[in-house]
Amino acid sequence: METIRGKTSLEMTASDLQKQLMGYKHILLDLGTGDGLYVRCRAEQHKERFFIGVDACRDNLRANSRRKLPNALFIIANTQALLTELNGLASHVTINFPWGSLLESLLSSEDSLISRLLSATRPFARMDIHLNAEALVTAGWTLESGADQIECIVNTVGWRTKSHSWMDAHLLRSFPTTWAKRLAFGRDPCAIRLSVQRQ
Ligand SMILES: C[S@@+](CC[C@H](N)C(=O)[O-])C[C@H]1O[C@@H](n2cnc3c(N)ncnc32)[C@H](O)[C@@H]1O
Asked: Ligand 1 centre and the CA of 56: distance in Å?
């Protein structure tokens, strides 16, 4: 698989990855990580955990992936085909403000990403999905109906809802992703957070 640090891209095998993860009990997978700010901030805060950011687009990742954090890794990949190297690894998944094909694959009840994520996660793994209105409206849903659709799929493919809550401007401002900040200071500062757990 292809990983990135700054401008340099590096091929990594499953056994290289296993070596890097050795000694870490908690592994977080951030899908559609964007510029990787979330992974960088969390990795700086929680040195005892390992954070993996995945995005199809490499250009935005240059600045945050340049930092030499021993507990962070950035992978260039399309989540439409989840990497087998990640099988059984994640104890926690985050999907923050997805759009495009990432969002479509959460909304689709046929071959949903949520179902495919069973292979990348451990039993009882947690997953937090943050959704915003504009992306869902572009995909043909409202914020509420899109969140309900995703929650319904979650609960039919082996995960269970823990909470379904609103985020206001204050919560968005304190959430460490670039997109959360944009929403917080934009015209419609609200989002929905779905927290679920694998059974
Ligand atoms: C609105 S941005 C959110 C970025 C970041 N999570 C944040 O909160 O700032 C959505 C991200 O999803 C990524 N994305 C969309 N479809 C994807 C796919 N199929 N595979 C991987 N990444 C995808 C885009 O490249 C983009 O970086």
From this structure: 7
Q: Whole-structure pTM over 0.85, yes or no?
A: yes
Ligand 1 contact via 102 beta carbon (within 6 Å): yes
Listing from the earlier edge strand, what are the strands of the sheet with 159-167? Answer: 8-11, 2-5, 72-76, 50-55, 27-31, 90-96, 121-132, 191-198, 159-167
**Ligand 1 in reach of 78 Cβ (< 6 A):** yes
Q: Ligand 1, residues 40, 52, 57: which to mutate, most atoms within 8 A of Cβ?
A: 57
Give 27-42 pLDDT, tens digit per residue. 999 999 999 999 999 9
pLDDT digits (tens, 9 = 90+) for 122-154: 999 999 999 999 999 999 999 999 999 999 999
Q: Is 79 in the pocket of ligand 1 (CB under 6 A)?
A: yes
The stretches of the chain forming alpha helices (DSSP H) are 14-21, 37-45, 62-66, 100-107, 113-116, 133-138, 143-156, 169-174, 178-184
